Amino acid sequence: MKTIDYIGKKMPFKESQDYLDELIAQTTEKAIREGRDGRREVRVRPLMRYAAAAAIAVLLVFAGITLWSPASEGVVAERSADTISTMTKTEGAGPVDEFLAGISDDDAQLLAYYEIEDEVEY
Amino acid sequence: MKVEISEQQLLEMLSDPQQREQGFRQLMRQYGEALYWHIRRIVVGHDDAEDVLQETSIKIFSSIDSFKGEGKLTGWMYRIATNEALTHLRHQTKLFQSIDDLGDKLVSKMEAESPADSDQTELLFQRALLTLPTQQRIAFNLRYYDELSYDEIARITGKNVGTLKTNYHYATEKIKEYIKQYTT
């Protein structure tokens, strides 16, 4: 009977040398192919990122130019003028100012404490 | 006939982009078979060993730049192979099952893939080996089959030398006990 010391360092399963050589050769070539693809991917990925960032930047610039083109500038200027005139009107004596000037101090205080929740709901 | 070149020469080739692929082919010619058997002893199945060897070689080739030269290149390769084999075993476990519980499954695989005329004592020895906890089994394999030093095994497994010596001693005792139990 063999003991552990004399059992020999054999495995119960055997593989032929040809099979092993072929397996290792195939494995090696596949690893190299995958490695090349991986390296290419690593190189391409930042380039894709830069390209995407550049495309977004170009789109933003284009959108900016379209919005602020001389054709639309008039509309914007007109709008700005409207806003200024409204502001001027608000600063001056409007109907609300006239109404407030006409009421007593007590009425004004009552108005200040008036809240929308005070309205009875039905 | 295989032409062997030194680890230093291999490293020089692998660190040179022009010679990297040639160096890797040579590396695998020299150590591919040892890696295959190391993996086969862990995962046991023939197809499993092929898959793990493939994953291992891809990892080695793609991360060769990360080898810092601490210890031997072969030790670093064995570490990758060991980790890949353990990952493969983990994928075979069920939820909440440990890889140490795969013993019976591995024994069945080993018996199914052994030739009918296999030596019964050798089979018994393998069965005993497969009853050991996985980490203990790996340490035993590296010492017994690959004849690596405890320092090298420590670098591969991440265990300290003292623990490995104790583990090897207990593993040997358990195997002897198992064989004795089934032969008397």
Summarize the structure in short.
The complex is a heterodimer of chains A (122) and B (184). By secondary structure, chain A is mostly helical.
Structural class of chain A: mainly alpha
Strand runs of chain A, count? 0
Q: How would you describe the oligomerization state of the chains in this entry?
A: heterodimer
Into which percentage range does the β-strand content of chain A fall?
A: under 5%
**Average of per-residue pLDDT values of chain A:** 72
Distance between the termini of chain B: 46 Å
Tell me the name of the CATH class of the largest domain in chain B: Mainly Alpha
Query: Mean pLDDT of chain B, as a whole number?
Result: 92
Give the helix proportion of chain A (percent range). Answer: over 70%
Number of helical elements of chain A: 4
What structural category arises from helix and sheet content of chain B?
mainly alpha
Return residue spans of chain A where pLDDT drops below 50 for at least 5 consecutive residues. none
Biggest interface and its residues per chain?
A-B, 25 and 38 residues
Order of helices and strands of chain A: HHHH
* Helix percentage of chain B: over 70%
**Could you spell the SSE succession of chain B in H and E letters?**
HHHHHHHHH
Q: What number of domains of chain A?
A: 1
Largest sheet of chain A: none
